[in-house]
Amino acid sequence: MSIKSILKKAELTELDYVNIFEKKGKIYSFLNPYGYHLMRKNQTVFNNLDGLFFDGILLCLLYRIFYGKKITRRSFDMTTVAQDLFDRINDTGESIYFIGAKQEEIDRSVKQYKMNYSNLNIIGYRNGYFKDLDEMDQSIKQIIDFLPDFVVVGMGAIKQEDFINRLKVNGFKGIAFTCGGYIRQSSRGIFYFPFWTNKFHLRAFYRLYKEKETWKRLYNVLIQFPYLFIIDFLSSHKMKNETKLRK
């Protein structure tokens, strides 16, 4: 499967978003401009996803320009997917399990979730750090035994995609989402981004202000990502033309 095929998963997810919380046994992740270079180096874990969301206006814009498809920017936070999921669970009583961040961070985050959603059925949670693969396997078995309807995993790019892949391979029957740094962010409040940052698409600039460590990602986002994206598009276009010529 090519990078183009991985990106096209976002088209399928876009078409099926209305049913995204209905189809069980599915795993979903999010791709942003920073994580693009990591995705290219770890294509296998993305190949196995059932769907992909584009988290970043720049990614959505370039995809529309080069591939001609409009994809809505969605992220696992209270601007889109997280709010839709929490609203649903609060009404239906379905269960959810959280894993990610440091233990003290996820402790505070779970309190925030319960404060804002009194009926949120959280059946378990734990930090996203493991001393070895055996501990990870034990955690996966425990999660599966709990039979949650939804699992949210925030371990950072690639580790979290690998984790939800392992969940599915080991028999998880619910729906899993990665969430990047959302569990850590929500330890200070579930509405991380102010309204004006969402309205004017300034979330990235707000993160630069709030999280100084994100400054080191600017090269990956502003220079490396557009270059790699265009290179990948030209490569896929060349392969398509060569296939036509062989026919």
Tell me briefly what this model is.
Helices cover 53% and strands 13% of the residues.
Structure description:
The chain has 247 residues and is α/β, with parallel strands linked by helices. 53% of the residues lie in helices and 13% in strands. The protein contains twelve helices and six strands. It has helices at residues 3-15, 36-41, 43-47, 57-67, 81-92, 103-116, 133-146, 159-169, 182-185, 195-199, 203-210, 218-246; strands at residues 26-31, 51-54, 95-100, 121-126, 150-154, 175-178. It has a six-stranded parallel β-sheet with strand order 2-1-6-5-3-4. Strand 3, helix 6 and strand 4 (121-126) form a beta-alpha-beta unit. The chain is globular, with a radius of gyration of 18 Å. The model has no long low-confidence stretch (mean pLDDT 91).
List the helices and strands and how they pair.
Layout: H1 3-15, E1 26-31, H2 36-41, H3 43-47, E2 51-54, H4 57-67, H5 81-92, E3 95-100, H6 103-116, E4 121-126, H7 133-146, E5 150-154, H8 159-169, E6 175-178, H9 182-185, H10 195-199, H11 203-210, H12 218-246
Parallel strand pairs: 1-2, 1-6, 3-4, 3-5, 5-6
The helix tally amounts to: 12
Biggest sheet, strands in spatial order? Answer: 2-1-6-5-3-4
- The whole-number mean of residue pLDDT values reads 91
Order of helices and strands: HEHHEHHEHEHEHEHHHH
* Largest sheet composition: 6 strands, parallel
Report the structural category.
alpha/beta
- Helix percent reads 40-55%
Mass-distribution shape: globular
Quaternary state of the chains: single chain
How large is the radius of gyration? 18 Å
N-end to C-end Cα span: 20 Å
The total count of strands amounts to: 6
Taken as a percent bin, the fraction of beta residues is 5-15%
Q: Uncertain regions: pLDDT < 50 for 5+ in a row?
A: none
